[in-house]
Amino acid sequence: MKIERLSQDKIRIFLTFDDLLERGIQKEDMWREIPKVHELFSEMMEQAYSELGFDASGPLAVEVFALPAQGMVVIVTRGKTDSHHIGYPDTDDDHDDEVYEMEVTLEQSDTVMYAFRDFEDVISVSKKLLSSGISEDGRLYAYQGKYMLAFDPAGSEPSKYHAIIALLAEYGEAASVTTAVLEEYGKVVIAAGAVKEICNHFE
């Protein structure tokens, strides 16, 4: 479980599928109100408080994004109110009467996102993707000192989809950011056809 602060009132939590399996939670369970998911949320909020000093009292807006091949991203924003609340008991004994008031949004993303520390790796993986005929598509972003390649393999046959992930994993690491975060906080370097564009410029 990895937690980072996006702003004073917003944090992002990245859960790998291993994090979920360790707690006996399937990806589909995040869409259900069950005690295990409540416990996981309490654990996330305790860790956010101990690591970042993020106090989760009061109303919270929670966005859960399922990412293929990577895990889940949970974005928690403090201070938004809505008519739809789910009560999560506070585990702190000093605040027995408090609950987490949550407005939960669940989204499934098919975008495959990988991060690369070095632009040379982006060039290498692009050449491999193009020469093997797997893909000439993709979007390239710059974010927090890294390059991010994003693919939307909707409609691709599973073998092609897994081949893209296998090649990306050789050179980079699965990224715990969503496209929405990249477009808000990162910089779009190549908006479409990134693989082909990179190969054209770096023969």
TrEMBL record:
<dbReference type="Pfam" id="PF05389">
    <property type="entry name" value="MecA"/>
</dbReference>
<dbReference type="InterPro" id="IPR038471">
    <property type="entry name" value="MecA_C_sf"/>
</dbReference>
<comment type="similarity">
    <text>Belongs to the MecA family.</text>
</comment>
<protein>
    <submittedName>
        <fullName>Genetic competence negative regulator</fullName>
    </submittedName>
</protein>
<dbReference type="InterPro" id="IPR008681">
    <property type="entry name" value="Neg-reg_MecA"/>
</dbReference>
